[in-house]
UniProtKB/TrEMBL annotation:
Swiss-Prot/TrEMBL GO biological process terms: DNA-templated DNA replication; double-strand break repair
Xref: NCBIfam families: pola (TIGR00593), PRK05755.1 (NF004397)
GO molecular function per UniProt: 3'-5' exonuclease activity; 5'-3' exonuclease activity; DNA binding; DNA-directed DNA polymerase activity
Ranges of residues in domain 5'-3' exonuclease: 4-267
Keyword list, A-Z: DNA damage, DNA repair, DNA replication, DNA-binding, DNA-directed DNA polymerase, Exonuclease, Hydrolase, Nuclease, Nucleotidyltransferase, Transferase
Name used for this protein in its record: DNA polymerase I
Organism of this sequence: Paenirhodobacter ferrireducens
Length: 949
């Protein structure tokens, strides 16, 4: 039916329905998997009631439910702070948004949204089109922003109150007719949407002004005629802000829609589709009502959705919200299947297509994903329903040609991967893994890009960081009450250890399939727990999307010049020899500098250092912390202090040589000629990434020797290394969270923050400041973030402890807000057992209420975690956004080193890359967090990392 005269269009404000439904009903979860569905249930009931009421009244000929696509619209471009005050949706509401779209389609009602425009703009555009076509419009909403559309055949209906809103009702609310509502809103502003308006002018005053002057432009043109001095000056001073506000509140009735009014013709629900959706949601009562409506039998349904208890909705405390669940089915390794042919594999993959879920795991010959060979793939489609696909097992002997003889009863790898590829890449099938980044890379090397994914390790990390590890064996024992088959039973240990391709297939099946089974069960266990723990957003925006980003970086690798490393190794060896001679001269005798036992005897027995401790074997302890303490004894035992300092220097050079200049040469991949580090997403409780095999994050940056190592990280010919590094990001976050005005002002004005701090606490001018004084302030600035003690500061600065304590005391006197932040954070941790970052990351502090040294460490960790964690969250957000931002450039993100991102870029794209990456990094906190200090990113580029940094 073509839309025209006599037609009646109903436009339903979908967001209003969702939020009313969410707050009207108690929390509900789907019993089968714990998915929150309370808002969906309420939404479905409201839509069903709407359909029934519409048929009994003035029935529409056309109808649509209109949704907001996202929070980013053209208004955000005009005014970045638009709607910045709005809190994020509740954790348990987020996963329900897409389900309400599915519900709308299940009721066979047009479901419309549009990127870059709010639902209100789509409604405004449709209302104008319908009015021009001669039809009538009813907007089902009570949103005041839509009241500007009322009139000329357009009315509103508040469905909750069954109240019609026409011109009279709008004028009663705003004091002006609908066509002047935007003028009143422009003056009064809107605190909910963060529309600034005119300071001090509310709705009533705004209405009086518009009644007198007609509209905003006339009012501003005649502002000097306004009698009240304060009001007159406000209108003059804030004229541009008022005009901006009018642009923000005026709905765009010319949105470029990709559908027409004719597409919105009312259609009856298709009973089968609707019943299937309601049954899937486990809405038994509504399913029964709909079945009765259509004269259908009620299907055999899954258990009804259940109410959550208050504690479950409140979220997890220090532990999981519920005890370990009894598995859906007992573990039975004998029931696992060995898939040896394409027909059987195709049948298993059909199960995954039917359910939309597949747990997957790989078996390989090595933990190095870049060199490992694929041996087999394990799958699970349900709890207890698991299989193993052997692909690369050998008999263990050699064939006639000197190669490895292939074991019988396996699938051809090419055939298996050809069957797996469409499923692993199907956007409609969720692929579940444990440490999915490893498997992602294994499949990527086979030409398969796995997506979408879920990762049980990262689910655990989001919920339980600080409580326990996140390996599969530990999680299985903790949450499934099951101990997996130990890998040692298959591979052995020590010199006799074999690789997985040498494992007999009959032994590989139960071990491998069990891994997929456990992973599937953990996912079923963890998925409903995320929202209860209040970390759904953390997992969905900071953890899961990072997997493919890191995987691509790791696979790209970084080029290393081994000749440079070899030369450095020689230089370091010479430097060590020189230091050994100096050390023995200070000691007054020859000894093995690398022997902690001999060093301890000289320091504590011959040079008389007091307060030492011995290990279990009776030798004196001479760890770095002990030597650092001894270096502070310059006044009382100068010989021991100089000896300790020289040994620390020798140890640093020795570590650089063994860990980097020697070891890095062995890490160069023979196939790529590059070094491929591996990042552990769940390696640190605070969200910081950990780099291993090799560790590229611990290369010292403050010593000349450490900086020289970066000279070996180079770009190929025609390309450059680009480094972008956050400037003092943790101090900036501290200034924000502790609300320190002096630090905030310094960052806003681009001052030297360490010099400013030194000036504040030591009372010295910034101009001509002694570099040593600035260094002391810098040590305090960074030390405070880590809860440093006078003992630790004295060690860092190599000064007496009393002097260090005096520095700290003066620091807190000058910046009392930092002490208040520390005290408040510790109190929160003690009460709740965890702390949170600005982005919702939860870091547990289980030892915070203990006695003794553990409590001290836990308190320092609690103070640091929200700051370091927020910095880690920000750079994660930047990394996740980066691929899209630089997609058009010949550039690759290679490394993340704490607050720094390193890229390899074609020479022609260096400046565009720096501009694009800097924009992403400096805006990474938004829109979730609006920091009170600017984020600043320093960029550099060169032929090597050393030049770029």
């Amino acid at each position: 039916m073509a839309f025209g005269k006599g037609c009646h269009l109903h436009l339903i404000d979908g967001s209003a329905f969702i939020f009313r439904a969410y707050h009207a009903l108690p929390p509900l979860t789907r019993k089968s998997d714990g998915l929150p569905v309370g808002a969906v249930a309420g939404f479905c009931n409201m839509v069903f009631r709407y359909i029934e009421d519409a048929k009994n009244g003035d029935a529409p000929t056309h109808a649509a439910v209109i949704f907001d696509y996202s929070s980013k619209t053209f208004r955000s471009e005009i005014f970045p702070d638009y709607k910045a005050n709005r809190p994020p949706p509740p954790e348990d509401l987020r996963p329900q948004f897409p389900l309400t779209r599915e519900a709308t389609r299940a009721f066979n009602i047009a479901c419309k949204e549009m990127e870059g425009f709010e639902a209100d703009d789509i409604i405004a555009t449709l209302a104008r089109q319908a009015r021009e076509a001669g039809g009538r419009v009813t907007i089902i909403s009570s949103d005041k922003d839509l009241m500007q559309l009322v009139g000329g055949g357009v009315e509103m209906l508040d469905a909750m109150k069954n109240l019609t809103i026409g011109r009279d009702e709008v004028e009663a609310k705003f004091g002006v007719p609908p066509e002047r509502v935007v003028d009143v809103q422009a003056l009064a502003g809107d605190s909910v949407d963060n529309v600034p308006g005119a300071p001090g002018i509310g709705i009533k005053t705004a209405a009086q002004l518009i009644q007198e002057y007609g509209d905003v432009e006339t009012l501003l043109a005649r502002a000097t005629e306004v009698k009240q001095p304060k009001r007159r000056q406000t209108l003059i001073d804030f004229a541009d802000q008022i005009r901006l506000s009018k642009r923000l509140v005026t709905l765009d009735d010319a949105a470029p829609l990709d559908f027409t009014l004719d597409d919105l013709e009312v259609k009856d629900p298709e009973p089968a589709a609707l019943m299937a959706f309601l049954n899937q949601m486990e809405f038994r009562t509504l399913t029964k009502r709909v079945a009765e409506k259509f004269g259908l039998e009620v299907p055999v349904a899954a258990p009804a959705a259940v109410s959550e208890t208050a504690p479950e909705r409140a979220g997890a405390g220090a532990r999981a919200t519920t005890p370990a669940a009894v598995p859906e089915a007992p573990f039975d390794t004998a029931a696992y299947v060995c898939i040896r042919d394409g027909e059987t594999l195709a049948a298993w993959l059909a199960e995954a297509r039917a359910t939309g879920i597949l747990a997957v795991d790989t078996e390989t010959t090595s933990l190095d994903e870049m060199q490992a060979d694929l041996v087999g793939v394990s799958l699970a489609t349900a709890a207890g329903r698991a299989a193993y696909v052997p692909l690369g097992h050998s008999r263990g002997g050699d064939d006639l040609f000197g190669g490895v003889e292939r074991a019988e009863g396996q699938m051809d790898p090419a055939e298996a991967l050809a069957l797996l590829k469409p499923v692993l890449e199907d956007p409609a099938i969720l692929k579940i893994g444990q440490n999915m980044k490893y498997d992602w890379k294994i499949f990527a090397r086979q030409g398969i890009r796995v997506a979408p994914i879920a990762d049980t390790m990262l689910m655990s990390y989001a919920m339980f960081a600080g409580l326990h590890g996140h390996g599969m064996d530990a999680l299985s024992a903790e949450y499934l009450g099951h101990t997996p088959i130990p890998i040692k039973e298959l591979l052995g240990s020590g010199k006799a250890q074999i690789t997985f391709d040498k494992v007999a297939i009959d032994k590989a099946v139960p071990y491998s399939a069990e891994d997929a089974d456990i992973t599937f069960r953990l996912w079923r266990r963890f998925a409903p727990m995320l929202h209860r723990a209040g970390v759904t957003t953390v997992y969905e925006t900071l953890e899961r999307p990072l997997v493919p980003v890191l995987a691509e970086m790791e696979m790209a690798g970084v080029k290393v010049d081994t000749a440079v490393l070899a030369r450095m190794s020689n230089v370091f060896a010479q430097r060590m020899a020189g230091l050994e001679a100096e050390i023995q001269e200070v000691a007054g005798q020859p000894f093995n500098v690398g022997s902690p036992k001999q060093l301890g005897e000289i320091l504590f027995e011959q040079l008389g250092v007091e307060g030492g401790s011995r290990g279990k074997a009776g030798a004196w302890s001479t760890g770095a912390d002990v030597l650092e303490d001894i270096t502070t004894l310059e006044d009382t035992n100068p010989q021991a202090a100089r000896l300790a300092a020289k040994v620390l220097d020798w140890r640093q050079i020795s570590k650089l040589k063994s860990t980097y200049t020697d070891a890095l040469q062995t890490h160069v991949n023979p196939d790529t000629g590059r070094v491929h580090t591996s990042y552990s997403i769940a390696g640190a409780n605070t969200g910081r990434l950990a780099s291993t095999d090799p560790n590229l994050q611990n290369i010292p940056v403050r010593s000349d020797e450490g900086r020289r190592i970066r000279e070996a990280f180079v770009a190929p010919a025609g390309r450059r290394i680009v480094s972008l590094d956050y400037s003092q990001i943790e101090l900036r976050i501290l200034a924000h969270v502790a609300d320190i005005s002096a630090l905030r002002d310094a960052f806003h004005h681009g001052l030297d923050i360490h010099a400013m701090t030194a000036s504040e606490i030591f009372g010295v001018p910034i101009e001509g400041m002694d570099p040593m004084v600035r260094r002391q302030a810098k040590a305090i600035n960074f030390g405070v973030i880590y809860g440093i003690s006078a003992f630790g500061l004295a060690r860092n600065l190599r000064i007496p402890r009393a002097e260090a304590q005096a520095f700290i005391d003066r620091y807190f006197e000058r910046f009392p807000g930092i002490r208040a932040y520390m005290d408040d954070t510790i109190a929160f941790a003690k009460e709740n057992g965890f702390v949170r970052t600005l982005f919702g990351r939860k870091i547990h502090t289980p030892e915070i209420n203990d006695k003794g040294p553990r409590a001290g460490f836990a308190k320092r960790a609690a103070i640091n975690a929200p700051i370091q964690g927020a910095a880690a969250d920000i750079i994660r957000r930047a990394m996740i956004r980066m691929p899209a931002a630089i997609a058009g450039l010949d550039a690759t993100m290679l490394l993340q080193v704490h607050d720094e991102l390193i890229f390899e870029v074609a020479e022609a794209d260096v400046e565009p890359l720096i501009g694009a990456a800097r924009d992403i990094m400096e805006g990474a906190a938004e829109p979730v967090v609006k920091l009170s200090v600017p984020l600043v990113v320093e960029a550099g580029q060169g032929a090597s990392w050393a030049e770029a940094h």
